[in-house]
Amino acid sequence: MASNSRAHSPSNTSALSWISLICGIVGFFTFGIVLGPVALITGWIAMGKHFNSGNVPAMIGFILGLIITVLAIIALIGGAAVYGMSI
């Protein structure tokens, strides 16, 4: 069984961490419901199985993605409550 060494190579991890950071920043201004989970997932993958304190862009992207996702869910629930819909 051949192992896939490209999955977690430094260049792929660096690209994922920057994607996570960019999605986290842009998600605050537009498309938070989509970009929040993208930042969350790509940050998690870039950090690996444990939180790597050396990968700062991935950690910031992960945290921003978490905040954006929670705020988007709260906004969706609040919008549904205003219009009388039950979730």
UniProtKB/TrEMBL annotation:
Top-level taxon of the source organism: Bacteria
Transmembrane segments: 21-46, 58-83
The keyword Transmembrane helix is annotated on this UniProt entry: yes
Keywords carried by this UniProt record: Membrane, Transmembrane, Transmembrane helix
Protein name: Small hydrophobic protein
Lineage: Bacteria, Bacillati, Actinomycetota, Actinomycetes, Kitasatosporales
